[in-house]
Amino acid sequence: MTDLGSLTPDPMATVLRILDVQPVPGEADTYTGESVQLPHGRVFGGQVLAQSLLAAGRTAPDGRLPHSLHGYFLRAGVLDEPITFAVERLRDGRSFTARRTHALQGGEPILSMIASFQEQQPGLDFADEMPTGLPDPEDVPSALDVLSGVDHPGAAFWTHAAAFDLRHVDGAIFLRPSEDRSGRQAVWFRARGPVPDDQLLHRALLAYACDQVMLEPVLRRAGLSWVSRGLSMASLDHAMWWHRDVHMDDWLLFVQSTPSAQGGRGLGATRVFDREGRLVASIAQEGMVRLRG
Fold it and tell me: How far apart are CA 25 and CA 27, in angstroms?
């Protein structure tokens, strides 16, 4: 059994500290950051994505928030080395700003991301509606409850060091496959601690959090779980669009599906709604999903 006393007592505070990338003295538009310690020994992709977005946001004009990003995960990062974030200023227009960030370890990119920022402006305003008939998060078991007492390093992490409370409406697939092979799922998400009132930070935290479940619909449709024998997974690319302000310290509903899997790759799609039913973000991610015999 993992030593629970060694795990962080304040996981959200730890994530906020890790995401606070610092400027490199004497190097313009360059930042550095550490990594959250995870049981599998590799840097969490959502962390690098969020840090890259925050580094880019530090160079954007005041009042411009990210509305989209597109990123490629190029190499696995290691936990015991800092990550350098080099930001390239691509364009500053009258209302839009474009930035490219390379996340580097040992001089090689582990992630390359381009993000666009925009001033708040009036315009067309409509959106898909949140599905009806789903239970409130208070009526859905938390991953903290599902994995409590499970003798597995990953379970110990999820119950004591994970920064977000996840609640799968139709049951989690941490330990066993779903009987439903539709590839659809709904998950309630909320930060397990307070988050400063900084919209750039909240949007970065959504990038961080969503990487935990983006490929779960692929597993559901394939009849797999996170502990299926021979399963190997890795994020390949990631796209996000923020439609409205996000508040990660209140409940968000992830409505997810998977349209396709082939060639050792699977695609996950997510619409994110706030507690009031507003569509706040859309996300897509393709990942490597292989099952070795």
Answer: 6
Q: What is the pLDDT of residue 41?
A: 77
Predicted local distance difference test score (pLDDT) of residue 10: 83
Query: Residue 28: which domain range?
Result: 4-120+135-291
Q: What CATH number is attached to the domain comprising 171?
A: 2.40.160.210
Q: Which residue has the tokens 């897509």?
A: 284
- Catalytic residues, by residue number, are 211, 235, 285
Query: 217: which 2 tokens?
Result: 């619909």
pLDDT tens-digit readout, 99-117: 999 999 999 999 999 999 9
Structure tokens that stand for 101 in this block: 């960030």
d(CA 145, CA 167): 10
CA distance 139 to 129: 21
Q: What is the tally of structural domains in the chain?
A: 1
Query: For residues 234-260, b (16+ Cβ closer than 10 Å) or e, as one string?
Result: ebbbbebbbbeebbbbebbbbbbbbee
9 in a domain, yes or no? yes
Q: Other C-beta atoms within 10 Å of 2: how many?
A: 17
DSSP alpha helix (H) spans, 180-265: 199-210, 216-222
In the numeric block, the tokens 């400063």 are attached to: 196
- Sign of the torsion formed by the C-alpha atoms of 247, 278, 44 and 172: positive
Average pLDDT over every residue of 146-171: 76
CA angle 174, 14, 162 (to 5 degrees): 10
Confidence of residue 149 (pLDDT cuts 50, 70, 90): low
